[in-house]
Write a structure and sequence with these properties.
The chain is mainly α. The protein has eight helices and no strands. Keywords: Coiled coil.
C-alpha cells in the first residue's frame, strides 16, 4: 500500500473515500433536521437533477439539429456542469447528516445513488460525443458511392494543383538570377512548408500521383484513425449498456430509500 493510499490521498477514488477524508468545497447548510425531512430533501435533489438532464438533452438535440450554435451549447454545458456539482454537494450534505444521526442505511442508499449518477453523467456525455461525431459524416463508411467518388476526385484535383504549383515555382527559381539572393536562389516558403510537413508512411494515404500526404497539416483529432462501423456500433452499445446499468442501480437505491422513508413516517405515528 502506498503512502497516498494509507492517508486517503490521490490514489483513491474520492467518491469511495471515507467522508471525513474527501477533498471538496464547503457543503451547503440544511434547514431540515429530522431524518424524514433529510430524505425528502434528497428526493428534491433528484427532481432538480432530472430537470437539469432534460435541459441537457434538449440542448444537445437542438445543437445536433443546427438550431443551437456551438457557443450557446458550450455555455449550456457550463451551466449544467455547475448545477450538477451543486446538487452533488447538496446530496452529500444530506448523506453526512444521516450518518451523523446514525442512520447508516438511508445514507448508504444515497451513496449508491451518487455513484450511479456519476456513471450516468459520464455515459450520457460519451453517447453525445459519439452521436455528434456520427452526425458530421466524416467517416468513409458513412458516404454513398457517389459521395466517396466526389471526395476522391476533389482530393486528386487538389494534389494535381499543388504539384503544378510546385513545378512552376521550381522552374521559375531555376531560371532566375541566383545572385539576387546571395547565391541561394529565390526564396520559396511553399517548399519549406511542404518539406517540413510530418512524414506519413501509411500506404492508404499515398496521394494522387505519388505526392506527399497532407496528414502533417491536420490536427490530432483529424489525424486519429477513423473507427469502423462495427467499432462505432460497439462503442455506442457499450456506453448504452453502462448507462442503463447506472440508471437501474439508481432506481433500485431510490426505491429502497422510499421504503426507508415510509418506515420512518410509520414509526413517527
Amino acid at each position: 500500500m502506498t503512502a497516498a493510499q494509507e492517508t486517503g490521498g490521490d490514489d483513491e477514488n474520492p467518491d469511495e473515500q471515507p467522508q471525513d477524508r474527501r477533498a471538496r468545497p464547503p457543503l451547503p447548510s440544511l434547514e431540515e433536521k429530522t431524518p424524514a425531512g433529510l430524505i425528502r430533501r434528497f428526493f428534491s435533489v433528484q427532481e432538480r437533477r432530472a430537470a437539469s438532464y432534460n435541459r441537457f438533452h434538449e440542448g444537445f438535440d437542438s445543437h445536433l439539429s443546427g438550431a443551437m450554435g456551438a457557443g450557446d451549447y458550450g455555455r449550456l454545458c457550463g451551466e449544467i456542469t455547475r448545477e450538477m456539482a451543486a446538487l452533488s454537494l447538496e446530496a452529500l450534505a444530506v448523506e453526512e447528516a444521516l450518518n451523523a444521526a446514525s442512520l447508516e442505511s438511508p445514507a448508504a442508499c444515497i451513496r449508491v445513488v451518487q455513484l450511479g449518477e456519476k456513471a450516468k453523467l459520464r455515459m450520457t456525455c460519451t453517447l453525445q460525443v459519439l452521436k455528434k461525431s456520427h452526425s458530421e459524416r466524416r467517416w468513409s463508411w458513412q458516404r454513398t458511392t457517389e459521395e466517396a467518388e466526389e471526395a476522391e476526385a476533389a482530393a486528386a484535383a487538389m494534389a494535381a494543383s499543388a504539384h503544378a504549383n510546385e513545378a512552376a515555382i521550381r522552374e521559375e527559381n531555376s531560371s532566375s538570377n541566383a545572385g539576387s539572393t546571395g547565391g541561394l536562389g529565390r526564396l520559396n516558403p511553399g517548399w519549406a512548408n511542404g518539406n517540413f510537413r510530418a512524414r506519413c508512411d501509411v500506404p492508404e494515404h499515398a496521394a494522387f500521383g505519388g505526392f506527399r500526404c497532407g496528414c502533417g497539416e491536420r490536427n490530432d483529432a483529424e489525424h486519429a484513425p477513423e473507427p469502423t462501423e462495427e467499432e462505432y456500433d460497439g462503442a455506442c452499445a457499450e456506453a448504452t449498456r453502462e448507462l442503463e446499468n447506472a440508471v437501474t442501480g439508481i432506481n433500485d437505491a431510490l426505491e429502497e430509500l422510499r421504503q426507508e422513508l415510509a418506515d420512518l413516517l410509520e414509526d413517527d405515528e
